Amino acid sequence: MKGVSTDSVEGENVTLEDLKQKMAEFAKERNWDQFHSPRNLLLALVGEVGELSEIFQWKGEVPKGLPDWKDEEKEHLGEELSDVLLYLVRLSDICGVDLGKAALRKVELNAIKYPVKQCKGSSRKYNHLIKNNSSESS
């Protein structure tokens, strides 16, 4: 968000709650709540994911840490990642979903879907993993 002060969070850990409050204030100050329906926010999020995808388009696989990327490219990546995060946080707020709790629950569910013994080192989807007990269902 260009023009938004980050002084209050500089050097601190930023929480989803911090972002949620900042985004709510940002929208309220501009009278944008009227436009922030779940549908509109979702479509904006999809658009931002598209912009994020364009950064990687045609680059092939890139190594972790992006060692060959210029500082400007990494900065642009950070901006697009931030746009995706901010729209996601705003969408979850408007929908009344506690994103942090939902994410932690999803990690727990994924741990059940992807038991270490069956999936370690494998990229197979959970429904293609060999189960020890054939009566297990997902």
UniProtKB/TrEMBL annotation:
GO terms for cellular component: cytosol. InterPro entries: DCTPP (IPR025984). GO terms for molecular function: dCTP diphosphatase activity; magnesium ion binding. It is found in: Cytoplasm, Cytosol. It comes from the Eukaryota. SUPFAM superfamilies: all-alpha NTP pyrophosphatases (SSF101386). Its cofactor is Mg(2+). PANTHER family: DCTP PYROPHOSPHATASE 1, PTHR14552. Hydrolyzes deoxynucleoside triphosphates (dNTPs) to the corresponding nucleoside monophosphates. Has a strong preference for dCTP and its analogs including 5-iodo-dCTP and 5-methyl-dCTP for which it may even have a higher efficiency. May protect DNA or RNA against the incorporation of these genotoxic nucleotide analogs through their catabolism. This is dCTP pyrophosphatase 1.
